[in-house]
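Ticket #4471: structure output looks truncated?

Reporter: J.K.
Steps to reproduce: submitted the chain below (334 residues) through the standard prediction queue, then opened the result file.
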Amino acid sequence: MSRILVTGANGFLGAHIVKEALDSGYIVRGTVRSSEKAEELKKVFPSDKFETTIVPDLIESDYTEALKGVTAVIHSASPFIVTINDPKKDLLDPAIEGTLSVLRATQAAGIKRVVVTSSLGAVPSKPELIFADVTYGPDDWLPITYEQASSGRLPGNIAYIASKKFAELAAWDFVKEHPELKLTTINPTMIYGPVIHPISSLKSLNTSNATIYSLINGSKELPDAIPSFCDVVSTAKIHVKALESESVVGKRVLFSKGTATIYQILNVIAKARPELSDRFPSIPEADPMEGKTISRFDSTLAMDTLGVKGLGLEETVLQTVDSLLELEKKLGTN
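Returned output as attached by the reporter:
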């Protein structure tokens, strides 16, 4: 039975990757930042096939012990960033060095197979980004330069997706120097779905689920969100299936199930959960995004090669809502 390492195992996506890997028969070792987080995660995964290893810092930590006995790595962790005062120092370089740190250790340990979580945000290559009338594919890259991203003149969300681009580029450049490594990157869009990782407050929700929660927590404002979606369980499956497929070695696996505007998401909730209506923002008569062109993404490798079709919008949204309401009962609204 193969043992794999999953970095960021106590994150929203990372925990689902752990679950899918355990369900697929792997022994899973997950990285966490502290012994406290390790104990919390062991309560989620009490299986004797699940292990934890403490990696306090993605960039500075020694992975020697973490990688002992491991045959493959799924790197889903991102550097822990509290505030961004200097995009280069606080965002770009930590993202790049965090990825390279894992890859260097993986290569030094003689491990050949590695899957890295990137982002669909690293893909749109047109100036209009996700509002271009095109189907983006694996050969497309965000046109923002490192100099632009580090200048401090870009909005925070654009600087963030630029950091995902440069971290992914660093991974591909590393593999050019070490061709014995078999790399696949997974590039999902906005990921929604049930929360299974330990959190102490709804304020700790991942960005995408926090967007849906803002529709049902009484805040009464329509949030902004990238009008594209995928579900977390399918995204986790793609990571695990990629380990087992030679067909995606050296490939970028894009994953978007389709378009989802905030208006469409809110209407799904309103139709299926009318008892929540007093929490909703005002629903516009028409979708503010109506008439706008929204880019498409070629998810052939995920859906056809790896066989993961993904859940539809209604199922994805309602699974998320039900999970958030359960968390609200458990944790309260603070």
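Triage note (M.O.): checked the attachment and the full token line is present. The chain has a mean pLDDT of 96.
Status: closed, working as intended.
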